[in-house]
Amino acid sequence: MAPATIALAVAGVVLGVLVGSTGIGGVLLVPFLVHGLGFPVQRAVADGLWSFLWSGLLAIALYWRRGSIPGRAALWLCASALPGAYLGAEALGVVPGNLLQALIAAVLLGGGISTLRPPREAARPHPLGASSLIALGAITGFASALLGAGGAFLLVPLLVALGEPVLLAVGLGQAIQVPIAAVASVANLRAGRIDLGAATTLALTLAAGIALGTPLAHGLSQRALRRLVAIAMLVAAGVMVGRLAKLF
Q1: What is the pLDDT of residues 197-234, one digit of tens each?
Q2: Contacts by 95-102 with C-beta closer than 8 Å and gap 24+?
Q3: 47-72: per-residue pLDDT in tens?
Q4: Residues with Cβ within 8 Å of residue 193, at least 6 apart in sequence
Q5: DSSP assignments along 137-186, one per residue
Q6: How far apart are CA 27 and CA 153, in angstroms?
Q7: With contact defined as beta carbons under 8 Å apart, do 113 and 238 qualify?
Q8: Quick check: 75 and 126 in contact, CB under 8 A?
Q9: CB of 219 within 8 A of CB of 168?
Q10: What are the residue boundaries of the structural domains of the chain, listed by start?
């Protein structure tokens, strides 16, 4: 097995554990593919979204079985994410690579800072109404398809900031990534952006990591895991900013 394939597989398992346990590890995938393995940024985004489609199905099954995905909220979020994901995938073909990397770095930085903050406790289980869920879904769909960051990463900090319990926020993040990845992958396949071999390797290894990480989310405190992912995000953002600075 080629060293690059081994690195891809190991990264898939490690990031899968983070996705399964905190919902926000997938955002590190694109920076790893771009700066660790030398993927063009559009291909890295497309491969990542393809892998999130299949590994996300497993995540939904695992969280649903544990009662951690509220059906009504998931339905509103997923339905409203579809048009946003289509527009984001179309935008991927026209946004310059350097600008795309700068956007990803900004998302990493903001997400890392947000994740370091202690979560608020919700006053009631599902305080968000349909209009709020629709807006969150549309924003998450567009940004996730454009950046390849994974819907969970974008949605979980927003829901936690709005007072949702961490575990349910992670569950909803797992749910929303599948329709986003499905719509975006159709556009990316049509445009020829996906390397099916690498993307499928990622999907399988992410799924293995998610299977390991899901019990952590339901059995351990999220504080240490949140801090670990936040630090990883900030480090990745710093690496991307440093590399971008060399181009100017």
Answers
A1: 999 999 999 999 999 988 887 876 767 767 776 787 78
A2: 95/146, 97/40, 97/41, 97/42, 98/244, 98/247, 100/41, 100/42, 100/45, 100/146, 100/147, 101/34, 101/41, 101/240, 101/243, 101/244, 102/240, 102/244
A3: 999 999 999 899 899 999 988 899 99
A4: 42, 43, 45, 46, 92, 93
A5: HHHHHHHHHHH---HHHHHHHHHHHTT--HHHHHHHHHHHHHHHHHHHHH
A6: 6
A7: no
A8: no
A9: no
A10: 3-245
pTM of the model: 0.80
Asked if 158 and 136 touch (Cβ cutoff 8 Å), the reply is: yes
pLDDT at 4 over 90: no
pLDDT recorded at residue 150: 74
Q: Classify each residue of 51-89 as buried b or exposed e, where b means 16 or more C-beta atoms within 10 Å of its C-beta.
A: bbbbbbbbbbebbeeeebbbeebbebbbebbbebbbbbb
Indicate the range of 18-27, 73-82, 192-201, 221-230 predicted with least confidence: 221-230
Report d(CA 99, CA 130) in Å as an integer: 33
- Count CA atoms within 13 Å of residue 210 on its CB side: 27
Residue 169's alpha-carbon distances to 104, 162, 179, 183, in angstroms, are 22, 10, 17, 22
- Cα–Cα distances (Å) from 69 to 93, 165, 201, in that order, read 33, 11, 27
- In whole angstroms, give the CA distance from residue 114 to residue 159: 11
Return the number of other C-beta atoms located less than 10 Å from residue 100's C-beta: 21
Say how many CA atoms lie within 13 Å of 173 toward its Cβ: 32
